[in-house]
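Can't paste images in this forum, so I'm doing it all in text. The chain is below; anyone willing to post the predicted structure tokens underneath?
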Amino acid sequence: MDRITLEHGGGGTLMLQLLAETVLKEFKLKTAGPVGLDDLDDSAALRIEGGETLVFTTDSHTVKPLFFPGGDIGRLAVAGTVNDLAVMGARPVAMACAIVVQEGFRVDEFKRIVKSMAQTASEVGVALVTGDFKVVERNDLDGMIITTSAVGVAKELKTDRMLRPGDKILVSGTIGDHGATILAQREGFQVEGELRSDVCPIWDIVETALRVGGVSAMKDPTRGGVAEALNELASKSNVGIVIEESSLPVSPVVRNFCEMLGLDPLTLTNEGKVVMGVARDRSDEVLEAIRENPKARDACIIGEVTENYAGKVILKTLSGGQRIVPPPLGDPIPRIC
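Text version of the structure:
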């Protein structure tokens, strides 16, 4: 490999291999608490006093187009970052933001994006406490890149390694909405029905589930979609996950869109969903509770965790067969988030 490609930024196997051969190899000091860089989790965890854990995360956002049905790069930047905290069981507290724009960027569009960021932050109650702003020459950047970092506090830390045999796998709503929306907008595809990104903060959904209890592990299925999220949980927890194709929540418009282009909804990015492992005896209660939130009205149980197939995700197909769901090499749609 001589050059980095767009596929290396897709959140899949290619990206993980690149990071392992470069960043993880070079840095020797990579942890300051129970979860560090080598864990490749959604956030890092730093132990603090009082039985609570300080959780820290950072993310860069380079979606194309900058504005799309359901949101924009500003909403995406805030939601994507605080959601990484949420799936670690952490309530978002404070956020930092660095914005780089291309010379000539429209001031009215900049104001629109900043307003969107502020509105999204207010939804989850996270404060913007510091930041940076830079301008680069024309053609050095395609519009704008936003980097956001955030800290949160977890009373009960959740990691990718906590999934247990017997857990049920829940997803908080329809999958593939964001990925399908971005691709349709970018390429000008005409579809029957409305494609709309699901981008939103998920802390309120997570908080409800944690209050009910029984949650073992969580992921927000962004780049690489549900397929990547489930594979990470299975491999890190050394368990198998069996899901039912008939139970996967896919909206009719996304399903038709994927069939038209030969895409798998399991691999498409989501920006307002959470995948949860929940103890069998609490799963129905958690499902009922989160469904009271309008953002999770389509939540459902899609499968369960097993001691068999360690490190693998198995899909029971509509035809009665089974197939392995591999981790994607990269996201099928570059510049998605």
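The radius of gyration is 19 Å. The chain has a mean pLDDT of 93.
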